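Students often ask why we bother encoding 3D structure as a string. The short answer is that it lets us treat folding as translation between two languages. Here is a chain of 378 residues written in the first language.
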Amino acid sequence: MTFYHASRLFDGQCIRDNVRLSVENGVIRGLDTNPQSTDLPLKGLVTAGFIDTQVNGGGGLMFNQQPSLTTIRKIRQAHSLFGTTAMLPTLITDNLAIMQQAADAIAEAIVLKEPGILGIHFEGPHLSIPKRGIHSSHEIRPLSEEEMAIFCRQDLGKVVVTVAPENVSAAQISELVSCGVIVSLGHSNADIDTALQAIDAGASGFTHLFNAMSGLAARNPGMVAAALHDPRVTCGLIADELHVHPYNCRLAFQCKGWQNLMLVTDAMAHVGADVESLPWLDTHIIRTGNKLTLPDGTLAGSALDMASAVSNIHQNMGIALESALNMASLTPARFLDCSDRGKISVGMQADFVLLDDQLNTLGCWIGGVQVTHEGAQI
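And here it is in the second language, the structure alphabet:
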């Protein structure tokens, strides 16, 4: 048993002072208010580790470009520097061979119980070309039996698939859900009726709310209205103050609460690496400050990390710290049906992060094992 003295600790409901945190075999065994002088000190705010459901890359690598176990490890290590303890490596629209390679790499990680890897997010290829963003129009295609077989593999852990509901039928969505796939709606120009039919069929998420989806208009409510209004769905939000205006972030929070609004990074290779220009398809992604674009100005993912997302949503947008922390941990855990993660309580996996007063990451633990310390990889 390892004992820690947390000067402050957020347990998923409230922030507590001077908590004794007991960890054994990767699991939280105790929380009490009687710390001992021999306990390991955690000076700062201890909170549940962040869970990111949309991670395209990190540490200088993109999952699409090198879909291997080595890449998965490097991406996870880069994001752990910023408090992420669990993630879904995300494959952007690609050909069938790359999809199979990515799935095989994730399956290997799951077998090896790779720390922090929960499964995979396939963002595409069954999207809307008008709302494709940086996704290759040459690879966007209808859902075939070959892709369905990959999505429905039972060795991939948690599987999220982003689809455009105007191009994937309600029956196909139902089939995916019946196989255990979590269907998220995004990169779509669908009208409100099509979006609601997809939700009725079992879709339970919206991918990067407001971005690459039909907007809210007086007589055409579109995807945004379905996302904000329907309590059955959880929405991902890129809170980098570049993808979504802060006013819209606050509006989303008013509509969804922390219970159905989760922070995501949509991170590219730039997180945890000094990358300025990144080759992408037949062009390249340019970094200007924290903004990533194609040469034509199209937003191209983000350089956002989860600690910064929490800081932005709390310090810059005025959302309570407790809600911001849950949006990065408990909400995505519930979205993925990971009942053993997302908050600090007895019986949960010992995934936690130590933050300073400015919400910078001081340390990160996965399964009770410290993987980063004071911003440096161990």
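Translate back mentally: The chain is about 25% helix and 30% strand. Keep this in mind for the problem set.
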